[in-house]
Design goal:
Shape: globular
CATH architecture of the largest domain: 3-Layer(aba) Sandwich
Largest sheet: 5 strands, parallel
Radius of gyration: 21 Å
CATH class of the largest domain: Alpha Beta
Strand order of the largest sheet: 2-3-1-4-5
Number of domains: 2
Number of strands: 5
Strand content: 5-15%
Order of helices and strands: EHHEHHHEHHEHHEHHHHHH
Length: 342
């Protein structure tokens, strides 16, 4: 008799509501336990980033940045400790199923060897593993990624860079093939991240339906996470990032905390609609992904994306953008860096 639990491994992709899903699962960890479902804490409190750090290979760009892993010895010790911690957490009580979630598995594990290492780590613990992946239309994914890049400190030149559309990040057929090649296509659950295709128009509700999380478990919905930025907020944050990057602005220590306070203040003060590129630019970006999308749809026999670009303006309002960039430069000159966050 096999008493091992099943595993639902949620790999993202990035920019498909993963933060909201993880907040929900972490918030309801106790209720899930009562229902015989484990959302492990040893892999990360909310986001299971240690899965990616375990499976990546030298020079460990993700592990070094997030966990200080910068040598073979540190990585080996980290892996051994994580193996022991997961085994201990699984043994504390009998679970019928386990859920793991980390969107960086999509963006950082880009070759089969890494994914195989992850499977070798997980497979001995489970009777069955299903891999859940949400795919979002690439132009919309890129816009969301632009906002995230600003929030974490980068200075991207444009919202939609067509050359980036051909990278692994947006090549959904390659992502599917890599994971299907290791876990089996029959074990991949592919979902479209689009309001009209999500159960209840909500990714958390859709995730619950896919994972079989019943309303009878007493799970509480959490606040939806939205990283879209108004034009004013985006311009202010871009100007802030540029000044920090080139040394014109040196924040008081701890600088990381001070920057986060400034970002919080900016996003709270300047709410509004995001700035969109032109309909043509969005269409060109999406068309650059046409080949990979067609290949994926042939594999899964499912249409994932529509061709509605009506949310974009016919012409990009570059005059407004330039005016707001100038306004941001002036506004930041008068920003009080010593005041507490709102």
């Amino acid at each position: 008799m096999n008493n091992k639990p099943t595993l639902l491994l949620h790999i993202g992709t990035e920019k498909t509501g993963t933060t909201s899903i993880q907040e929900f699962l972490a918030h309801n960890r106790a209720q899930l336990k009562q229902a015989g479902i484990l959302y492990p804490i040893c892999l990360g409190d909310k986001n299971h980033i240690k899965l990616t750090a375990y499976a990546e290979r030298s020079p460990w760009p993700f592990g070094e940045k997030n966990l200080g892993i910068d040598s073979p010895e540190k990585h080996a010790a980290f892996c051994l400790t994580l193996e022991q911690q997961l085994d201990e957490e699984l043994q504390r009580r009998p679970y019928r199923s386990v859920i793991m979630s980390n969107e960086h598995l999509h963006s950082n594990l880009s070759n089969p060897e890494q994914i195989q290492a992850l499977k070798a780590f997980l497979a001995p613990h489970f009777s069955d593993i299903k891999v859940l992946v949400y795919f979002r239309r690439q132009d919309l994914m890129a816009l969301s990624l632009y906002s995230t890049a600003l929030l974490v400190g980068f200075t991207p030149n444009r919202q939609l860079d067509v050359s980036a559309a051909r990278s692994y990040y947006y090549r959904f057929d390659s992502i599917y093939d890599n994971w299907a090649g290791i876990f089996g296509s029959e074990n991949l659950l592919v979902k479209a991240f689009a309001r009209d295709k999500l159960v209840g128009g909500n990714v958390v509700v859709d995730f619950c339906a896919t994972a079989g999380l019943s309303a009878d478990y007493g799970l509480a919905m959490t606040e939806r996470k939205n990283e879209s930025l108004s034009l004013e907020a985006a311009c202010l944050i871009l100007e802030l990032n540029e000044r920090i990057k080139d040394g014109r602005l040196v924040l008081p220590e701890p600088s990381g905390r001070k920057r986060n306070q400034l970002i919080q203040k900016i996003t709270e003060l300047f709410k509004g609609s995001p700035y969109y590129p032109s309909r043509q630019n969005a269409s060109v970006f999406f068309q650059a992904c046409a080949e990979t999308n067609k290949a994926l749809q042939e594999r899964i026999n499912m249409d994932l994306f529509d061709d509605d670009f009506s949310m974009y303006p016919e012409q990009e309002n570059t005059e407004l953008f330039n005016a707001k960039r100038l306004w941001a430069k002036t506004a930041l000159d008068s920003f009080d860096l010593d005041s507490p966050p709102v």
